[in-house]
Every structure is written in structure tokens, then in C-alpha cells.
Amino acid sequence: MTQPGPSLTTSLDGLTPEQLRGFFVDWPNPPTPDTFLRLLRGSYRVVLALHDGQVVGFVQAISDGVLTAYIPLLEVLPEWQGRGVGRALMTRLRDELRHLYAVDLGCDDDLVPFYERLGMRRGNLMFTRSYERQNGSLPE
């Protein structure tokens, strides 16, 4: 018997850091669950995939709320990957952002086909990174 899929929510009500463990796999300097919760709360829109009270996937957008949004993070726990959770999260978030002119994201080359299947087009992205700040800690 297959495990039922997670439910999606846009609410952060009652969400705790303990429900946010297991993300940022292979990040050399990942945010703590407390910092992770702060970044979700600071987002314009968030969609969570929940199963048995645990977050198994999430996607967030930052936006001016008028014309544009950027999707910085989409993650699904490794044991939930390949089950359509990422697709469901993105579909719901894009619906949440449908009132905007532009929705952009940057991704690694190996993820381009995933986003193209969702109707997104390839473009260019310019960026800078301060990897010592990757965990989201506050400056000293």
C-alpha cells in the first residue's frame, strides 16, 4: 500500500522549528530550524507540504506585491522526492502569485527540465554569494 501524499497549506500558524528538520541537505553552512522558521515568516508567500505534522517540503516567494516575485527556495525532503511534492508545491505557489507580472527563480542546470515542465522558461541569472552568511545568522 502506498503512503498517502502530504497536504498543502499556506499557513504558518502553529509551525515550530521542530517541524522543519531535515532540509538544506548538502549545504555546508545550513540555517538552523529557528532561522528557517524566521525566513519562512519573512516571506511574501509560502506553501508547505505536511505529512503527520512534519513539513516534508516547502517553497517560498519574496515579492514587492505589485509586479514581481522571486522564488529563492524549493525543497523536498530526500525521502519524499520523486513523488510529485515539488510539482504540487510549485503549482500552488504559482497560483498564489498569478496576480503578478513576473515570477523568477534561479536553479542549477540539472533542475532546468523540472521547471520547464512547469511552464517556466530558461533565462539568465546574475548573482553574488557570501557563503559565510549561508546559515542566515545575524551579523556580529
From TrEMBL:
UniProt entry tagged with the keyword Acyltransferase: yes
SUPFAM superfamilies reported in the protein's UniProt record: Acyl-CoA N-acyltransferases (Nat) (SSF55729)
Transmembrane stretches, start-end: none
Record key words, sorted: Acyltransferase, Transferase
Keyword Metal-binding: no
PROSITE patterns: GNAT
Pfam families named among the record's database cross-references: Acetyltransf_1 (PF00583)
Domain N-acetyltransferase per the UniProt entry, residue ranges: 7-140
Name of the protein this chain belongs to: Acetyltransferase
Native organism: Deinococcus actinosclerus
